[in-house]
Amino acid sequence: MSVDGDASGYGSAVQHWNLLSFDAPEGTRDPLVLHSDDGARAVLIVLSPGQSLGDHQVKENAWVTVIDGEIEITAGGESLRGERGTMVRFEPNERHALHSPTGARLLLLFAPWPGEGHYRGAAE
After folding, report:
1. Burial 103-115 (b: 16+ CB within 10 A, else e)
2. Which of 61, 89, 105, 112 could bridge to 68 as Cys pair (CB 3.0-4.6 Å)?
3. How confident is residue 4, by pLDDT bands cut at 50, 70 and 90?
4. b/e map of 25-50 (b: 16 or more CB within 10 Å)?
5. How far does the chain reach from its first CA to its final CA, in angstroms?
6. For every residue of the chain, which 3-state class applies, written as one string?
7. Residues 33-51: pLDDT tens digits?
8. What dotted CATH number matches 7-111?
């Protein structure tokens, strides 16, 4: 699903989203694309308690911001806890994993979009 601006911001000169207002019944790992263009992509993900985004990498610079809840982050042999307000950045192709023991709402930013080597399918 893709959302290009909150209903209150549609047609406005300033696009805006209330990241706490999007419904995610029972939690989901399915990404909600908030905005995407040739420069960047913004994605909202809600993890239920115990859900993870297992060890993976992306072709873009990736920023993860914890909007609500908490996550455990592992990358490069390090682990850290991210709580509400935490933002982390991963280099292109840097392997990392995210796990939420209690549930979390995350904003992911990818730039440039798509990154070099990222397959751009028909659904992009």
Report:
1. bbbbbbbbeebbb
2. 105
3. low
4. eebeeebbebbbeeeebbbbbbbeee
5. 11
6. CECCCCHHHCCCCCCCCCCCCCCCCCCEEEEEEEEECCCCEEEEEEECCCCEEEEECCCCEEEEEEEEEEEEEEECCEEEEEECCCEEEECCCCCEEEECCCCEEEEEEEECCCCCCCCCCCCC
7. 999 998 999 999 999 999 9
8. 2.60.120.10
Which has more pLDDT, 102 or 121?
102
What is the reported pLDDT for 122? 46
Length of the chain in terms of residues written: 124
Report pTM: 0.81
Name 99's bridge partners.
52, 72
User: Would you kindly state where each structural domain of the chain is located, as residue ranges?
Assistant: 7-111
